[in-house]
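Form 7-S
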Amino acid sequence: MALYEEVINDLEEKKKNKESGKHNSIPWPFSRHSEYFDSIEKGTYIGLLGATGSSKSRFIRFLIYNMVQFSMENDYNIKILYFGLEDEKKAIYRKIIAHYLWSRHGIEVSQKYLNSKDVPLPDRYLNIIKQDAPFWEEFEKRVWIINNATSPNEIHEKCEKVYNQYGKTHHCVAIIDNFANITKDTTDDTEYQAVKRLSRNIIRLRLCKTLNMSVIAILQQDYESERNSFRNTGKPITAIEPNLSSVGDMKICTRDMFAVFAIFDPFRYDLKSYPNSEGYSIEILRNKAKFLLMLKANEYAMAPRLGMLFDGAKEHFEELPRPEDKLALEQLYTKIIQEERDKIAKFGQQKMF
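Output:
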């Protein structure tokens, strides 16, 4: 009865954790999804699908921000390996700094401003960043940014190293941004074979199933062909929403995943409203609106689409009011329109409304 005892011990440990106010997993940051997908549990393999420029990486970093904040506030041991394969490490870190300047101090700065492109970054901002050194020390204890491991074996090696050191005491999370940047090992004939091996043999069977790590991986959606098809044939909106078939050959990876989400940006398709004429006004929200769709769930009911208010500079997502809450939406629309008019008055930008 060895397996039985292991399961009972695991149940008892989780029960004790909960009774003592501790946590057994990392909460999902959207309350309206809580009854469908409430947390990132150990051993879970999650996919995120989206077109180029749909803010997939920003969404991933938003998850990281929330994981770190949760870890610090709840004494929850966590190790995040962020394989940021598209950007240089310092560039990723600067984006993280911009988010925290806003979230911790209410200071909004663009990457252009942070990098002193037009004018020098004010000393007061730089001093605030320096004064936050203890925070960044804690941040780097939890998050390791890696961009020099791009092949399956290299990623595997990094994950094994972290697990061997922290796996017994920490919730270890590997984030791969993204599968399109995976390179071959000498045993792989093609990049497709490399990604397939990474997903099936390394992530699903080794990292998740054996080591009980959590893994989040980004998949690329074929955006242009679907946009052109939609425009040229007048297909319904559902034809351009992301689906498991829109990743082409990489859909084999989605079979390995516990859950698959997708980010949809209706503004890129020139839609006036979404998901229908009674829905959100994309004419007003424009690229501030992103929608999180659940495409696959192994053990949960499928969550409904979630409207998110998006701020690119801050890399922040929050739930939009429900589409039937007309009063809250009207208040939001009025605020957005006024903010745009204020920008026009201040900077002379081209009028949007």
